[in-house]
Amino acid sequence: MSDLFLRVLPSVEVEEDAPPADRVIAGAPQFKTWNLEDRDGIYCGIWEATPGHWRISYDEWEFCHILSGHSIITDAEGTEYELKAGDSFILRPGFSGSWKVIETTRKEYVIRT
Asked: Which residue in 19, 30, 60, 83 has its CB near the most CB atoms, within 10 A?
């Protein structure tokens, strides 16, 4: 396979994780991540989270495309953004708020540090 082409499939080994306990607001969310690329300050792959609610804070740019599920991101001012399959969005450095997974959510992501 060419170094210039990467097929985005969850064919790599899955990493399992959870938000730090001090960030959890409700539930016991669990994460699965398939990191497909990690090069030159760019990270991309597929991420999945089970229901729960936790605080988030971003120091990097992240583009996301929701593949399945239902989540609500709430910014620091209290504005809610409901997310479902087909939705795309960008989180900018400095964004903070919370992520609430209503139904297990899977997204494709690209992060630039």
From this structure: 83
Q: What is the DSSP letter of 60?
A: S
Annotated domain spans of the chain:
15-112
DSSP 23: G
- What is the C-alpha separation between 105 and 102, in angstroms, rounded? 8
CA distance 20 to 50: 15
B/e letters for 36-63, b = 16+ CB within 10 Å, e = fewer, are: beeeeeebbbbbbbbbbbbbeeeeebbe
DSSP class of residue 13?
P
Mode of pairing for the β-strands spanning 52-57 and 24-27? antiparallel
pLDDT digits (tens, 9 = 90+) for 88-103: 999 999 999 999 999 9
This prediction has a pTM of 0.89
CATH class of 15-112: mainly beta
Which has the closest alpha carbon to 16: 30, 27, 28? 30
